[in-house]
Request: fold
Amino acid sequence: MTTATREPRTAAGAITRLAAILTARGINPATEPSAAPEPVTALESADARIPPRYRHALADHPRTTAWVTEIARTGTTGPGGAPGIASGPSLLIAGPTGTGKTHQAYGAIRSLLAAGVRLRWEATTASDLYAAQRPQHGANPEQQLGRLTRSPLLLLDDLGATKQSAWTEELTYRLVNHRYNHMLPTLVTTNLPVAELRDAVGDRVASRLAEMTERVILTGHDRRRRTAAS
Ligand SMILES: Nc1ncnc2c1ncn2[C@@H]1O[C@H](COP(=O)(O)OP(=O)(O)OP(=O)(O)O)[C@@H](O)[C@H]1O
Ligand SMILES: [Mg+2]
Reply:
């Protein structure tokens, strides 16, 4: 299954898109050689932030594409009239190891960018979040948590994969509760069956996720292995 996205994969594609942007703004690219160069497209600059493994990920699950459509449809008007991201539903992508959860999540971000949605986004795994929150010289954990908490779009990858403690539970709660209260779109992935999330992340987090997320349940074999038996 594939998702139709329109995105420049080559330099020629980027130039065509740039010409379309200029034309839409009433600037003839052929007669305006001095026009300031447009910044690279959001998708191109986002590509640099997406881990190489997922740089070409396509969100091909119907529920993921439906979520992308919903977020793009209900967005606000951002800078330059481009659609921006607003409050909206979140997505919980669950399934066993290697079934493509992170792929779907980055694919969703890429689809939004390819659709022209201007968005600031952040991505972290739950374990990286906890590691960065440990007191360390020169770091500002509160600032880092605030950046993730308030980001218009957040990918929180691998929730529940780390052994939980009261400390990790409280951190997760602060993050999820803020995003729940402000209805900020959040992509959450987990290896755990949804029914086991409560034990892993605590009732307060699981309850909020139950209300704020739509579900994508991935099944099948571990795509990292050539055969299911290997
Ligand atoms: N729909 C897809 N089409 C093509 N390749 C895919 C697809 N989904 C996943 N993959 C590939 O399969 C591998 C595993 O995907 P991914 O890392 O997203 O799995 P995961 O469910 O997040 O695993 P984990 O639970 O270990 O985090 C990656 O190499 C990824 O690029
Ligand atoms: Mg993953």
In short: Residues 53, 60, 95, 97-103, 158, 191, 223-224 surround adenosine-5'-triphosphate (ligand 1) (CB under 6 Å). Confidence is low (pLDDT under 50) at residues 1-8, 31-35.
